[in-house]
Amino acid sequence: MALFEEEMDTSPMVSSLLSSLANYTNLPTGSKEHEEAENNEEGARPSKKPVKAPQLGTLMGVYLPCIQNIFGVILFLRMTWMVGVGGVFGSFIIVFMCCSTTMLTAISMSAIATNGVVPAGGSYYMISRSLGPEFGGAVGICFYLGTTFAGAMYILGCIEILLIYIIPQAAIFKIEGLEGPEAELALLNNMRVYGTIVLSFMSLVVFVGVKYVNKLALLFLACVILSIVAVYAGVIKTAMDPPVFPVCLLGNRTLLSKGYDVCAKVVETDNETVTTQLWRTFCDSDSLDATCDEYFTSNNVTEIQGIPGVTSGILAENLFGNYLEKGMFLEKRRVASEESADSPPTGANRYVMADITSFFTLLVGIYFPSVTGIMAGSNRSGDLRDAQKSIPIGTIAAITTTSIVYMSTVVLFGACIEGVVLRDKFGEGVNGNLVIGTLAWPSPWVIVFGSFFSTCGAGLQSLTGAPRLLQAIARDGIIPFLRVFGHGKDNGEPTWALLLTGCICEIGIIIASLDAVAPILSMFFLMCYMFVNLACALQTLLRTPNWRPRFKFYHWALSFLGMSLCLSLMFICSWFYAIIAMGIATCIYKYIEFCGAEKEWGDGIRGISLSAARFALMRLEEGPPHTKNWRPQILVLVSVDAEQNVEQPRLLSLANQLKAGKGLTIVGTSVQGTFLDNYAEAQKADQSLRKLMETEKVKGFPQVVISSNLRDGTSHLIQVGGLGGLKHNTVMVSWPRNWKQPECHQQFRNFIEVVRETTIASLALLVPKNISSYPSNGERFTEGHIDVWWIVHDGGMLMLLPFLLRQHKVWRKCKMRIFTVAQMDDNSIQMKKDLITFLYHLRIDAAVEVVEMHDGDISAYTYEKTLVMEQRSQILKQMHLTKNEKEREIQSITDSSRGSIRRKNPSASRSRPSVDEGASVAEQPEDESVAVSDPKQVRLIHGRTASSTPASPTSPASPTDGAERGQTGANPEAGKDLFNMKPEWEHLSPVDVRRMHTAMRLNEVITKKSKEAKLVLLNMPGPPKNRVGNENYMEFLEVLTEGLNRVLLVRGGGREVITIYS
């Protein structure tokens, strides 16, 4: 292994890696640690015991917990009512649809759970790691709310069993003698009071000792299984000996069992006809000639068997639904009754009546919570001996078992129990017995007490699990305002999360109706299951290399079917609740997206982004974008200092202000050196760019290249920036500062090369001059103008850029003005009309002005400026010659200058238009000029001192220029340099003189019109074709923009970027 000795620190040996992975243990943060902490508190200094390996198998670890969580309060309290109202056929469809949804979800969950180690956290962990923190946080909160409301539902079920079936006398708000809304309100108030008491007690139990809840879990499970077995035993017994549960009917209406002692109007006692309690209920006296209710008089009283048995053939009668409006009487089918249409219904407290309006979608919402709980196995993954084997087998087996039980009970209830008894939600017609209890064997109390303890246990487990789920979300840190709930007691118990859970659970208790709470938690669970299916489908379709689940019996189509079923069931249950639940999830998603912590979990959404980006890039390769789709994709070239900090941060501010076009932004810089030696500097520069981009809110990508010199690095950025069809079409580079100083000559040469390269590559170029004076993103212009000087057509860039800038809040209040230049043979009036029409078609609001600029005589000052420019070019040229070449060149300049100095120039030649600055070096009197043969002057050129290039009279009065002037004044010999030599003007290049003349005339006009403008946009002239005139080109641009505060030089890319067409 000597070959790999140097890499041992970063790349461990395979043997040690396998050892660490094989000994990996993953105990969930929760009840187990809490129990161990409580046990440790009993001893003074407990010794650290080795952590035991998880020992739970499929049966105890997954199957039985899922069975316990799936079977619940709905089975015992609402299943018979659902069959009676929806019919066997409709109820079977509901059960099959819900069970199919959970089975498909379990298949998707099994695939995710077996794709690597799943720590405790269940569905939240799986979704967040599969779909990212945004989806994970949103669905995690929904799952938490669903679990919390499930706790409220179990507590309400527990109170309902207690107050209606076990101890009705314990009611604080008496229901006796009340009817209608008053009786309903009294029942709900009882539920609220007792529910709050039970919730407080359960929360206290969870807070004090979770280990007691865990130890009682087996007892609660035994109650559930015993109750279900008792129901099946009762069904078998009805075939041989049906139990006696008589139901009394008046006509076809079911009578309250507490309203009669004998199911008859009168009875014969000692050959005497005596009225019964039922008679006294409907009549005004005990006598036979009393005035009675009309319906009572017209119809007979009959007694039917409430549970005729499985062989009675009652199934045919219960096959189809019988949906009821609130307040309707429970009537037996196929039984005639005489009812006068004119007689008002009386005696609401005499009949069994529907307490709510029922319909198919309501039944779906109420029933669905009875199939939830399939995550119990995955939540315990840390306790399983082999989670990847146990979770799929145990979960699917539990769902199969519970689905068979649910479907069979639907059929058996319809085949054994009379329809009016099934529709009797609270057993008011069968002496107040729990309807499912009437079927159980050996006694109804088996079901009553079994369901009571199972609902208590389920409520305790919900109050145990929900705070830990919230704690897991809070500790992930993806939702900042929830971080306080990640803290708890020293042993890890989530105290604050338990408090919040109790408060939210109290909301469900205040609602007080089991039928109203069930659809709420159905929404949250359905949303959770929907995203589990989505996660599996996406991972399967994206085919990410890490997607290698051990569970092989899955398919993306099954996951999409499960997702579609979940979404459909949400809107079937309640479109209103569905929209609220999705709104809550969307708000949480957007909150995490904007304010949450950045997490990289290798999620599937990132995989979707990669696939979508690849697809989009391939589409972009099909051809260049249409003019209507053109937007500036900007490559911002910045320079960094020795500490790798950006020297021109305002460039990024300007780029951000131009991003109303929502195009690509690449911020690039180059680091000088080699990749091996300077990689650390490049990484530091990259971080500096990212930080600045984040500060300036620039949405884009940083790019740093390492090159042997900065010129090549910049060229590489221009060539290879972007990817495929998503490449930059515009380059933004700052105007080189202090380019006239000798030590900065390479800087402006690089700048001109950038101009040339963008021209060849057909890229647009933006050059902001005096970038430090540009506004930051926080500044606001309350008034002012953006002036566009449209001299040559550049494809519309000059029109588009001000429009984009004015979309940003910095420039929004500025008005746009467009100036164009008319020459001698142009019709300025027609030009203005045409330009106004053109802007109207472009839908751009701007003031228009045509400036007439005729070709006048070239002034003497123009010649002087050209002379200074050419002399500077000659001196800068000396800096690149060898010592001998320098001496020869200096001698030739000296010889030619001596002859020209002897000849006098007309005095008018020094006449000049008024300028803001003082006399320049070039305009000093002749008698102050000195020959360059002075040895001091020769040494000056050889030494390349700063005085060899004094400030140009055309440059703005910058601090650097002022310093140079000070140096010149302080040193008279240095001031008498080559710039004072005046060759004859006829020796100057006519092209340079003409360009200087144009630059000066344009500058005069622009300065006059746009001196106070907040920004001036100006066509940028093209660079010289050969490199001899580089210095002259810079001088022309300097003269063109002199006296202007903010100038944006714009050079088009050779294509139209704006169009009048829609």
List keywords for this structure.
1062 residues, 3-stranded antiparallel sheet, 10-stranded mixed sheet, alpha/beta, 7% strand, elongated
What structural class should be given to the helix and strand makeup? alpha/beta
* Low-confidence residue ranges: 20-39, 41-49, 893-984
Between the first and last Cα atoms, what is the distance in angstroms? 69 Å
Shape: elongated
- Give the % helix: 40-55%
Widest β-sheet, arrangement of strands? 8-7-6-9-10-15-14-11-12-13
| Fraction of residues in β-strands | 5-15%
Average pLDDT rating: 78
Give an overview of the whole structure.
This protein is of the alpha/beta class and 1062 residues long. It has 35 helices and 15 strands. Helix 5 (79-113) packs across helix 12 and helix 12 (360-367) packs across helix 19 (514-542). Residues 20-39, 41-49 and 893-984 have low confidence and may be disordered. Residues 29-51, 880-977 are annotated as: Disordered. InterPro entries: AA-permease/SLC12A_dom, KCL_cotranspt, SLC12_C, SLC12A_fam. One of its GO terms (cellular component) is plasma membrane. Residues 649-763, 781-910, 995-1062 form the SLC12A transporter C-terminal domain.
Summarize this structure briefly.
The protein has 1062 residues and is of the alpha/beta class. Strand 9, helix 26 and strand 10 (764-769) form a beta-alpha-beta unit.
